[in-house]
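Why this split exists: single-chain examples teach little about how molecules sit against one another. For that reason, every record in the complexes split bundles all components of an assembly together and asks for one structure covering all of them. Below is a record exactly as it appears in the raw files.
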Amino acid sequence: AQKVTQAQTEISVVEKEDVTLDCVYETRDTTYYLFWYKQPPSGELVFLIRRNSFDEQNEISGRYSWNFQKSTSSFNFTITASQVVDSAVYFCALVNNAGNMLTFGGGTRLMVKP
Amino acid sequence: EPEVTQTPSHQVTQMGQEVILRCVPISNHLYFYWYRQILGQKVEFLVSFYNNEISEKSEIFDDQFSVERPDGSNFTLKIRSTKLEDSAMYFCASSEEVAGGGEQFFGPGTRLTVL
């Protein structure tokens, strides 16, 4: 069985602060994929990143960066210099290579105050 | 840029009624999915569909639910006799790749309210 845990249910920061959203996962599979999605107040799910289990290289995309550590089964997401528009619920998700069922974490609500 | 579309954006129905939620996946995608999100909770997988049949389904997807691809473009989710607890946002998604790492593109969702 797969499981994704996002221990932080809600985080509040002031604009320009850096913030890290934690994600810990469980799977028995050796090949799997990890995702982050953003859900703004409008409700849609916006894809942010996909990472496969064999690629532990950290990734940076603008103000966003991701730290994948297989040894701790974590795939954390950092936003540097946060902005009000970053306010949203962020979901971490996992799928194994054999299936297409995305298993989502409970989400972290990020509030960025001006 | 191609996108997944869903109609209606909001559906209100009475308990016990049948509802059909509609989705138009991205045209060259082969895999289709339905997920639901009860208000304030996480997104939960319902079902995946490939080659005109269900490939995976969750425990939530019981006999009250069915999916269909009635033509070459639409993908529908039917709930036969709605219950109050079916109130949720329903997301359709599609992906191109066969393997599990294929990015799933989500539609904007249909908010279902059962009264």
